[in-house]
Specification:
The protein is an alpha/beta fold and 238 residues long. 32% of the residues lie in helices and 17% in strands. A hairpin with a 6-residue loop joins β3 and β4. The radius of gyration is 17 Å and the shape is globular.
Amino acid sequence: MKAYIITVKGNKLAESAAQNCMDSHMKFANPFPIEIRTGIQPDQVDDMFTKLPFEWTYPWDQPRTDIKSGLKLSPYQTADKRKRMACFLSHWLLWTECIADDRPLLILEHDAIFIRPFFPQFTLDSKYGIIGINNPLGATRRADVFDSQVQTMRGEHLDVDRVLPLPNVDNFDIPQGLAGNSAYVIKPEGARELIKVVKEHGAWPNDAIMCKQLLPNILGVTSKYYTKVQGTRSTTTL
C-alpha cells in the first residue's frame, strides 16, 4: 500500500499542514511509503471535465432530490465552485490510479494528521472496499453521533484493530459517508464501484458521492481512529 497527501499548490497553510501530516507519518514510523501530491488546480477544472464521461450534477444554489437515488442533495457553502470541483478531481485521479496499479491506497487530505501508528493490513483483509480511519470529531456533521455509534460497536475491545460498518447518523435520504473524507483506505474493488457510481450519478462533493446509500456494504470505519483533522482553514468552502 502507498499513501498520498493531497495539498493545494501555492497555499502556504495547506502546504504547511501537508508537511505536518508527513511529519506525523514519520514520527509513528508507519510501514508504508507516503508522498505529498499536488491536487488539481481550479483553473484546470473546466478543461478536465470536457474530457470526462460525466458532468458535475450536485446542486450549487437550491437543494434538490436526486431522482435515481432518492437522496436529498443540499448545497455546500462554496465561495469558488471550481475549488470544490478540483477537490473532487484530485481524489478521482487517485481512484483511477488505484485501479490502474491494482493496489490499495491510503488517501489523505492535507488537514489530516496521524495520532497513532497505523498498520493497515487489517483494513486490507476486511470485506470493505473503502475504510475511513479518521476521528469524526471536528471533521463532520453529527460527529458526536458518529463517534458514539463507533464506540458502541467496538464495545470493550478498544485495543483490537478491526473494521466496523459505517454508522447511521441521519435520515435515510441524507447522504452519509466517511468522517470528513480526510483519510481513507481504498482498494481497487472499492474504487471500481465508486467510479461506477460517479458515472451513473455524476460528480458530487467527495463526502456526498462516497455515501453508504450509493455504496452499500462497501464503506467501513476502523474501530480505533488513526488520524484527526488539524483544524486548518478550509480550502474549498472559502
